[in-house]
Write a structure and sequence with these properties.
With 157 residues, this protein is α+β, with helices and mostly antiparallel strands. The protein has helices at residues 6-23, 28-52, 63-73, 77-86, 137-152, and strands spanning 91-93, 96-98, 105-109, 126-129, 134-136. The protein is globular, with a radius of gyration of 16 Å.
Amino acid sequence: MSRTTPRSFYLEFVQPNYQDYLQSPENVRRGINACVSAFQLADIMYAFYKQNDPSKLTEWNSKQDFLINLRRREPLFATVQSVATAYKHLYPTASHYVIDSPGDLFGLELPKDGPDLSSDTGTDVFVKQRDGSRVSLKNALEAVVNKLWPSVLPSES
């Protein structure tokens, strides 16, 4: 059995969860699952290379520096991170889920009224931020999964 590397995690979990979400981009559950794996890859990459090849981490002094760098490279990484870290605190209020998050996240807006996490109505899930702005979860995941991670993950020979 081969070991899990950051690239294999990306190929086996991040990409498939993102593709599942794209099949039903209005599905909150699929969106959250895609965010969890896309954010978890940061922990996996940092821990893997810290143990196996620290030379790949010389750009960052700590995991926190690594996360800050990811948010600088792609500001929508913060949206994915907020959804991933706050999903266990979801509670429904009318047409959106409020999330207790230390970041900018306020809630996930459902495409239609109703607190059904597996709703398949509408076209996207929107992340409502504390400043009142809305971010498309589809756009955030596209930026993180298809642009950020391919540019950050080291090659594995």
